[in-house]
């Protein structure tokens, strides 16, 4: 079990230690459930009443919340960020030992870096390049000419198609599919003619992709996921989508083909982003929102309506956009009416 003293944590987090700096911490927990040897945090004032009752050995607090607290504390600017960094330090997620399982199939032309771990029944295709300390879980498939950067990890049963480039320090969770064909077809007198998807997928560094998420390859150019992007479970990312740096996307969301999401965006769960449109940097889209037009300005955008006949929905959508104008007109008429009384 890994342990760290409050003094060591304070140095690592740039925190001020209040109380016994020799205390050892072995894990993190909530204020309500923490016990001795655990570190908790207060990031939301509505949990303030749990602070005095907590059994945690120490608590991460802001300077404001630390005033009057009699227990051991680490005083930081952002307790939640401090919690995240401490959790990383004390993470007990198992790592695969370096080496290749006897049942794995590795093409002779593949290049494997030092410290690579490849699990049972994994398949590594021709001309694949795996960087140092890459972990390939059991049952994974990495297709021809794909590249996975150093320290990246594929959990069990991830499928990476051909011509996919994954950066360093990435995590891809079980059941995800990277590089499947985009939904490209032409219609000839009622018959669908498949358009070969000849682009690839380019995933940056420090990207995390949740379980059972699909990222389609580009039709001609590549689908792009830039550095620092975090993607939740069960998300569909269609061909030629571009997602900007450090954007976060919650579960169940669908990004249609060729849409572009800016940097530092937050896309809530169960959203649908229409194809061939763009979203500016710093946009926050609330959960359940359907985005059907370009968003040019930073801000928070929301929508949620009940199901109705399409014709009625279209009329109501137009009317909804006119609501502010209608309100101002009514307000003006009310003022005019008062003036004639």
TrEMBL record:
<keyword id="KW-0444">Lipid biosynthesis</keyword>
<keyword id="KW-0443">Lipid metabolism</keyword>
<comment type="subunit">
    <text>Homotrimer.</text>
</comment>
<keyword id="KW-0441">Lipid A biosynthesis</keyword>
<keyword id="KW-0677">Repeat</keyword>
<dbReference type="GO" id="GO:0009245">
    <property type="term" value="P:lipid A biosynthetic process"/>
</dbReference>
<dbReference type="Pfam" id="PF04613">
    <property type="entry name" value="LpxD"/>
</dbReference>
<dbReference type="InterPro" id="IPR020573">
    <property type="entry name" value="UDP_GlcNAc_AcTrfase_non-rep"/>
</dbReference>
<dbReference type="GO" id="GO:0016410">
    <property type="term" value="F:N-acyltransferase activity"/>
</dbReference>
<comment type="function">
    <text>Catalyzes the N-acylation of UDP-3-O-acylglucosamine using 3-hydroxyacyl-ACP as the acyl donor. Is involved in the biosynthesis of lipid A, a phosphorylated glycolipid that anchors the lipopolysaccharide to the outer membrane of the cell.</text>
</comment>
<dbReference type="InterPro" id="IPR018357">
    <property type="entry name" value="Hexapep_transf_CS"/>
</dbReference>
<protein>
    <recommendedName>
        <fullName>UDP-3-O-acylglucosamine N-acyltransferase</fullName>
        <ecNumber>2.3.1.191</ecNumber>
    </recommendedName>
</protein>
<comment type="similarity">
    <text>Belongs to the transferase hexapeptide repeat family. LpxD subfamily.</text>
</comment>
<dbReference type="InterPro" id="IPR001451">
    <property type="entry name" value="Hexapep"/>
</dbReference>
<keyword id="KW-0808">Transferase</keyword>
<dbReference type="GO" id="GO:0016020">
    <property type="term" value="C:membrane"/>
</dbReference>
<comment type="pathway">
    <text>Bacterial outer membrane biogenesis; LPS lipid A biosynthesis.</text>
</comment>
<dbReference type="GO" id="GO:0103118">
    <property type="term" value="F:UDP-3-O-[(3R)-3-hydroxyacyl]-glucosamine N-acyltransferase activity"/>
</dbReference>
<keyword id="KW-0012">Acyltransferase</keyword>
<dbReference type="InterPro" id="IPR011004">
    <property type="entry name" value="Trimer_LpxA-like_sf"/>
</dbReference>
<feature type="active site" description="Proton acceptor">
    <location>
        <position position="239"/>
    </location>
</feature>
<feature type="domain" description="UDP-3-O-[3-hydroxymyristoyl] glucosamine N-acyltransferase non-repeat region">
    <location>
        <begin position="23"/>
        <end position="89"/>
    </location>
</feature>
<dbReference type="InterPro" id="IPR007691">
    <property type="entry name" value="LpxD"/>
</dbReference>
<dbReference type="Pfam" id="PF00132">
    <property type="entry name" value="Hexapep"/>
</dbReference>
């Amino acid at each position: 079990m890994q342990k760290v003293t409050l003094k060591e944590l304070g140095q690592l987090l740039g925190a001020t230690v209040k109380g016994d700096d020799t205390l050892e911490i072995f894990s993190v927990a909530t204020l309500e459930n923490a016990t001795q040897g655990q570190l908790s945090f207060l990031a939301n004032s509505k949990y303030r009443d749990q602070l005095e009752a907590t059994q945690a050995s120490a608590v991460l607090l802001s300077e404001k919340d630390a005033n009057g607290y009699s227990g051991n504390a680490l005083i930081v600017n952002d307790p939640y960020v401090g919690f995240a960094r401490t959790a990383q330090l004390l993470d007990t997620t198992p790592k695969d030992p370096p080496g290749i399982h006897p049942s794995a199939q590795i093409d002779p032309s593949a290049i494997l870096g030092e410290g690579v771990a490849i699990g049972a029944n994994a398949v590594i295709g021709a001309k694949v390049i795996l960087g140092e300390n890459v972990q390939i879980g059991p049952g994974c498939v990495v297709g021809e000419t794909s590249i996975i950067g150093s320290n990246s990890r594929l959990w069990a049963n991830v499928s990476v198609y051909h011509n996919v480039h994954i950066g360093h320090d990435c995590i891809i969770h079980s059941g995800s599919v990277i590089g499947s064909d985009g939904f490209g077809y032409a219609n000839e007198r009622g018959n669908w003619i498949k358009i070969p998807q000849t682009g690839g997928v380019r995933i940056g560094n420090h990207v995390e992709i949740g379980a059972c998420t699909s990222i389609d390859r580009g039709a001609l150019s590549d689908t792009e996921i830039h550095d620092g992007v975090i993607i939740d479970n069960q998300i569909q990312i269609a061909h030629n989508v571009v997602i900007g740096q450090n954007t976060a996307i919650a579960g169940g969301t669908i990004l249609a083909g060729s849409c572009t999401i800016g940097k530092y965006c937050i896309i809530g769960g169960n959203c649908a982003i229409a194809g061939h449109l763009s979203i500016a940097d710093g946009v926050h889209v609330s959960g359940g929102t359907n985005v059907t037009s370009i968003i040019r300005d930073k801000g928070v955008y929301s929508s949620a309506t009940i199901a109705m006949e399409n014709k009625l929905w279209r009329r109501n959508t137009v009317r909804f956009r006119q609501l502010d104008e209608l309100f101002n007109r009514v307000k003006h008429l009310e003022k005019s009416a008062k003036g004639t009384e």
